[in-house]
Design a protein that fits this description.
about 550 residues, alpha/beta, Gyrase A, domain 2, Isoleucyl-tRNA Synthetase, Domain 1, Rossmann fold, 4 domains, five-stranded parallel sheet, four-stranded antiparallel sheet, RNA-binding
Length: about 550
RNA sequence: GCCCUCGUAGCUCAGUGGAUAGAGCACUGCUCUCCGGAAGCAGGUGUCGCAGGUUCGAAUCCUGCCGAGGGCGCCA
């Protein structure tokens, strides 16, 4: 019996109690909370239902809990139901019912954990979107890992997700980049407000290799822009790909200007109630969406401001049929939330189709001291540097494991020294260990047991492992609902722990010449289920589930 | 000044209103003849930044304060 099924059982039992006592059944929530108590003495599961609705019914929670416990105790699936504390009902599942969780995982395999919550929803997930004026750095790596994982989690709930990267390749940033390249090509120092760093010299040289007379040409800047920016695009795409993050669409801001989309949009917006003319410029009423002030969309000189591109881009996304546009941005862009919402409103669209996730910064730390990173000075730590030190799996895992709401401190020295201590190895090891058992079982010709033997799994550690496995679908759903992929990582750590503890006290395969028993088969089935869930969870993170390590 | 996020063990961080607040790392001791020891068990540290409030119940929600980071251009 899965937690979801148990919740239904509890609700049904409660409904029965309320009806029998002629109490108001409308106070019963649709979703009854059934959770795993911290303290195992409090049972396998517990429900706080009596506490939730007791007051509204005018019944003492403990009394209500007593009625509920009596009703639940009637179920074949439930071994015991007891009142506890202020009005909890602590439940213990019958071993056979609990074994049903294992059977379900074996049945669903790679599909276990998926849901239909977002079926039919087309989501545009934009993340990273770092300026193509340099390599992807540490912060970008965080969004690459977390964004990709979020995409996978949303897909696991049935969403149709398009991963998108927005290249800001129009405007002054690129001009500075080009100027920096040309200065490097001429052997001149980095210009004021230009970009430093070794890669500038490398890209400049690459441009000269492709176009040896680039500096002499009249359209030198254009040549450097074409080739240099192109090389940078390739570099960004390549490093993200190597990081296990692939995008469906790389969108170029420049294309919005070239196609005239921005110009058309600007004209159209003048008719919007959310735009007004003042002091010679056109303003967006972003204040109504929480902004500090309204923002200029069309400048006094008639040229579109940067934000016009954002609005055109959003319009483009919607025109492509997306129901929801998620933007993952760094904390330095939190001011965009109101603007993007206002932009949707200005287009006559629903601001709820814009969802902005703000992630906090990644700091580089050394010996407990923060290391200042400057893109301009070229002292940033690149995503690749991190990968070189710890590998893709550990790098991704480190980035995903924490909530994006919290800023993250990365101590590279520590990572370099202790790669084996990254929790990802703990999780991967559990998977590798399970694969080893599966290999041995196959050699011995032992097969996993069928449904009827799963009730033999009555050991405390078996129960804990089974119940942890049972939590997975709920974790995936919460992870998707809250846009918090780190929950998957934390869950996997608890699953790996439950498995290692099980392994420590429950021998799976027969020792020496002992024959395989029904329990052997049942434990093997449990192992197979655990292996599926570890693999499914790691897949959601884009982290490998190795068979050997 | 205003806005956003954070403040939990020595460190890095979990904890979408529940019972005695957790994990990894670091420290110490133990378990183990055979399924992978990259494991398990035990030991111990907490004014959950501070102060109020809401609630049967608050690390979690609300208000104020303190501290850290970030943001507040007709730049992009």
């Amino acid at each position: 019996m899965t937690p979801a099924a148990l919740a239904t059982t509890v609700r049904d039992a409660a409904l029965e109690v309320l009806r029998a006592r002629e109490l108001d059944e409308s106070v019963l929530p649709e979703q009854v909370v059934v959770e795993r108590p911290r303290n195992p003495e409090h049972g396998d599961y517990a429900t706080n239902l009596a506490l939730q609705i007791g007051k509204r019914l005018g019944v003492a929670p403990r009394e209500l809990a007593g009625w509920l416990a009596d009703a639940l105790a009637q179920s074949d699936s439930i071994d015991s139901a007891e009142i506890a504390g202020p009005g909890f009902v602590n439940l213990r599942l019958a071993a056979d019912a609990q074994g049903g969780i294992v059977a379900k995982v074996l049945e669903e395999g790679a599909g276990y954990g998926q849901g239909e919550q977002l079926a039919g929803t087309r989501i545009n997930l934009e993340f990273v979107s770092a300026n193509p004026t340099g390599p992807v750095h540490l912060g970008g790596a965080r969004w690459a890992a977390a964004g990709d994982a979020l995409g996978r989690v949303l897909e696991a709930q049935g969403a149709d997700v398009t991963r998108e990267y927005y290249f800001n390749d129009a405007g002054a940033q690129i001009d500075r980049f080009v100027n920096s390249l040309m200065a490097a090509a001429k052997g001149e120092p980095t210009p004021e407000d230009g970009y430093g760093g070794a890669y500038i010299g490398e890209v400049a040289n690459a441009v000269l290799t492709q176009q040896p007379d680039a500096l002499e040409r009249e359209d030198a800047a254009e040549v450097f822009r074409q080739i240099g920016v192109g090389l940078m695009f390739d570099e960004v795409k390549r490093s993200l790909h190597e990081f296990g993050t692939d995008f469906d669409v790389f969108f170029h801001e420049d294309s919005l200007h070239q196609s005239g989309a921005v110009g058309e949009l600007v004209e159209r917006l003048k008719n919007s109630d959310n735009l007004y003319f003042s002091d010679g410029a056109w303003w967006l009423r972003s204040k109504e969406f929480g902004d500090d002030k309204d923002r200029v969309v069309i400048k006094t000189d008639g040229a579109p401001a940067y934000i016009a591109g954002d609005i055109a881009y959003f319009a483009d996304k919607r025109a492509r049929g997306f129901d929801l546009c998620i933007y993952m941005l760094g904390a330095d862009h939190h001011g965009y939330i109101a603007r993007l919402k206002a932009a949707a409103a200005a287009l006559g669209d629903d601001p709820a189709t814009v969802e902005v996730l703000i992630g906090q910064m990644v700091n580089l730390v050394s010996n407990g001291e923060p290391v200042r990173m400057s893109k301009r000075a070229g002292t940033v730590l690149r995503m690749e540097d991190l990968v070189d030190v710890v590998g893709v799996d550990a790098a991704r895992y480190s980035m995903i494991r924490s909530s994006i709401d919290a800023s993250l401190d990365i101590d590279l020295d520590l990572y370099a020294k202790r790669t084996n201590e990254n929790p990802v190895f703990y999780v991967q090891y559990a998977h590798a260990r399970l694969c080893s058992i599966a290999r041995n079982a196959e050699d011995l010709g032992i097969a996993a047991a069928g449904r009827s033997e799963l009730g033999l799994l009555t050991h405390e550690r078996e129960g804990e492992l089974i119940r942890t496995i049972g939590e997975f679908p709920g974790v995936v759903k919460a992870s998707a609902d809250l846009r918090e992929p780190h929950r998957i990582a934390r869950y996997l750590e608890s699953l790996a722990a439950a498995y290692h503890r099980f392994y420590d006290s429950c021998r799976v395969l027969p020792m020496g010449d002992e024959p395989a028993t029904e329990l052997t088969g049942a434990r093997l089935a449990l192992c197979t289920a655990a292996r599926h869930v570890l693999a499914n969870g790691l897949r959601l993170l884009g982290v490998a589930a190795p068979e050997r390590m």
